[in-house]
Amino acid sequence: MENFAALIYVISSVLFILALRGLSHPETARQGLNFGIAGMALAIFTTLLLPNVGGYFWIVIAIALGGGIGTVIANKIEMTALPQLMAAFHSLVGLSAVFVAAAAFHNPESFGIGTQDDIHLVSLIEMSIGLAIGAITFTGSLIAWGKLQGTISGKPVTFGGQHALNAALGVLLILLIIILCAGESAVIFWMIALLALSLGVLMIIPIGGADMPVIVSMLNSYSGWAAAGIGFTLHNNLLIITGALVGASGAILS
Amino acid sequence: MSAVLIMAGGAAVSPLVFQLAIFVMAIFVGYYVVWSVTPALHTPLMAVTNAISSVIIVGAVIALGAADASGFSKFLAFLGVTLASVNIFGGFIITRRMLHMFKKKD
Question: Residue A89's closest chain B neighbor by CA?
Answer without folding.
Answer: B87
